[in-house]
């Protein structure tokens, strides 16, 4: 046993496996924060490009005006065309955002006892990235929830899922202008707002 190992055992400190899990959790939180900061920065830039005042952006984000000014400093000052927010779009990022919004709705309808709850929460908080593997896993969990809890969920959720799932099952189409991160977040918001009972 090395001196280092002896000290660790004598102090009844964490095992390497316990420490690895702790560090993994810390790194997950850091990555999630970085992802959220990038999305926030891109959304602020988009809103500023659409002509929103820095005062309005500061009020909506809870940031100071100097902080907003720093985010948009050096960005092109010309207005940009607003992004398309029609629900029926078929690029991958948009469909992933719709799936995210739909899964959240299912989870809330089932009081967070849905099969999809843990994964959609991790994706939504940035703890897991929107990789094809994670998106496929979310699709499977959502389908299981819709089947298992069919009697407890509005039929509109199943209809929305069928459209989203068919779109994700097709080959990727032409790339759409704009950040995938922003398009995903916009689609998530639009999907939540377009479901029955929401205004």
General description of the model:
By secondary structure, the chain is mainly α. It is built from 9 helices and no strands. The protein has helices at residues 3-10, 16-49, 54-61, 65-72, 92-109, 117-124, 132-148, 155-168, 180-194. α3 packs across α4 (65-72). The radius of gyration is 21 Å and the shape is globular. The termini are far apart.
Summary, kept brief:
With about 200 residues, this protein is mostly helical. It has nine helices and no strands. Helix 3 crosses helix 4 and helix 5 (about 90-110) packs across helix 9.
Element pattern in H and E: HHHHHHHHH
Largest sheet, described in full?
none
Helix % is 55-70%
The 3D shape can be described as: globular
Main attributes?
199 residues, mainly alpha, 9 helices, 65% helix, globular
Layout: helices, strands, pairs:
Blueprint: H1 3-10, H2 16-49, H3 54-61, H4 65-72, H5 92-109, H6 117-124, H7 132-148, H8 155-168, H9 180-194
């Amino acid at each position: 046993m090395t001196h280092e190992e002896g000290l660790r055992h004598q102090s009844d400190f964490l095992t390497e496996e316990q420490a690895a899990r702790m560090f993994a959790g810390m790194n997950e939180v850091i990555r999630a924060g970085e992802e959220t900061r990038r999305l926030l920065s891109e959304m602020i830039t988009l809103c500023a490009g659409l002509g929103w005042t820095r005062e309005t952006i500061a009020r909506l984000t809870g940031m100071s005006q100097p902080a907003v000014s720093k985010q948009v400093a050096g960005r092109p000052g010309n207005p940009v065309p607003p992004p398309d927010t029609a629900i029926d779009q078929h690029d991958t990022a948009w469909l992933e955002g719709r799936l995210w919004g739909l899964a959240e709705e299912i989870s809330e309808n089932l009081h967070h006892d849905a099969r999809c709850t843990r994964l959609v929460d991790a994706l939504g908080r940035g703890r897991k990235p929107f990789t094809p593997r994670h998106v496929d896993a979310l699709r499977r969990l959502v389908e299981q929830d819709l089947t298992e809890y069919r009697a407890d969920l509005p039929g509109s959720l199943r209809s929305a899922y069928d459209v989203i799932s068919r779109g994700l099952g097709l080959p990727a189409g032409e790339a759409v202008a704009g950040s995938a991160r922003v398009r995903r977040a916009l689609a998530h918001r639009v999907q939540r707002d377009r479901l029955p009972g929401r205004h």
